[in-house]
Amino acid sequence: MYIKIVSETEIVVLCLYVDDLLITGSSLTAIESLKQGLKSEFEMIDLGILSYFLRIEFAYTEKGIFMHQRKYISEVLKKFKMMGCKPVETLAELNVKLVKSEDEGSVDGTMFRQIVGSLRFICHSRSEVAFSGGLVNWFMRDPRQPYLIVAKRIMRYLRGTLRYGILFPHHTKGDDSLHLVAYSDSDWCGDLVDRRSTMGQVFLLLGSPISWSSKK
Q1: What pTM, to 2 d.p., does this model score?
Q2: Which of 13, 49, 93, 127 has the highest CB neighbour count under 10 A?
């Protein structure tokens, strides 16, 4: 990510991933100037207002910008034959704890790692998936049947919540509600295998999550 400070009140932000560009900022004039400068140096196609970027979708409503991954999640569910599954209302059973289960049957390691990788990518727009996605991520080296059941439970939850996403509300000048709120917590040695703690944090701006993580 590159940031250009145009003036004390104007900035332009450029997000770059391989050959995909996302340009935004507080000044339309500065944005257009940057675009023209880039076009003079590189062969570029302007796709207009943001609607799809790195498998993340954006919709514009009266309340604000709605970010979601409905299309990608549907593709994941179809790939792993979970589109016709019975949805559940929660990501995991209450107080679920995973331990090494060497006596349980093993599962296809490639398939399991593909599922976990897909769930980790979905975390980019679904903050509530971060903890459960991380939970199955810890057992990728030796995937067993109980871990696959937990992973499939997450996909069953996603099947029932395809319309979920994050709404970034409009902010008008003079509105004094623009402030950052942060929450964090830890389960203090909650892992039954290595007794390490799992920490979670989320940062909210105008009531919408803008940064989050869950990790040991």
Answers
A1: 0.87
A2: 127
